[in-house]
From TrEMBL:
Residues 19-79 form the HTH tetR-type domain. This is TetR/AcrR family transcriptional regulator. Residues 1-21 are annotated as: Disordered. Gene3D superfamilies: Tetracycline Repressor, domain 2 (1.10.357.10).
């Protein structure tokens, strides 16, 4: 009778285990930063949440600032990737596509949104520049939509970059107040904000030269 060799349990590889720990650090820091604010959180608290000694964190993130930078850059990378992969209904107006995508994506990631916008002030200058490059890449998507729409007479904006920042600021503020289960559904929010955005860029009579009463 042939003897079958006993199977040796597969142990996690050091690299895979390290990646898992780093992911747990990100998750714990995300919750802490969103709840208490970056400045009030210590590496010791993050380590306690992960279940490791504080010194172990430094194998993955030398400083708390590195964690914050990583969270923000990851958020932007995933946002841009999601835009590229998003399905598009045939003949949907590009502006509607952007508005609905932005609202849906950000409502599902309230903590990431809060940190990515409210904690920009706590980034060191070199890290701020890195994050700002990615933010500008995302803003450029809407700016091009507005510029092209204006050329076609579909929209009317005096400065597409300024309009872009105003629209994104308005849409990004939704997760701060919206709560699931209220009298407005996510679809209702999308529709209402889409109307607001369309009115803001709708071609019409220029009121800048109107006389005041």
């Amino acid at each position: 009778m042939a003897h079958t060799a006993a199977k040796t349990p597969v142990r996690p590889q050091p690299r895979a285990k390290g990646q898992e720990t780093a992911a747990r650090v990100r998750s714990a820091a995300l919750r802490r930063f969103a709840t208490s604010g970056y400045a009030a959180v210590s590496m010791r608290e993050i380590a306690a949440d992960v279940g490791v000694r504080p010194g172990a964190l430094y194998n993955h993130f030398p400083t708390k600032q590195d964690i914050l930078k990583d969270l923000m850059l990851t958020h932007m990378a995933e946002l841009l990737a999601a835009w590229d992969k998003a399905s598009v209904e045939e003949k949907m107006d590009p502006l509607e596509r952007f508005v609905r995508f932005h609202i849906r994506y950000h409502l599902e990631r309230a903590d990431e949104v809060f940190i990515s916008y409210m904690e920009l002030r706590n980034l060191e200058p070199q890290n701020f520049e890195l994050v700002e490059v990615e933010r500008r890449r995302y803003e450029a998507i809407l700016t091009k939509i507005l510029e092209r729409g204006s050329e076609l007479g579909r929209y009317a904006v005096d400065d597409a970059k300024v309009a872009t920042r105003a629209i994104i600021a308005m849409l990004t503020g939704i997760p701060a107040w919206y709560r699931e289960g209220g009298h407005l559904s996510e679809k209702d929010i999308e529709d209402l904000y889409l109307k607001l955005v369309r009115k803001a860029v709708a071609p019409g009579q220029d009121t800048s030269q109107r006389e005041t009463g």
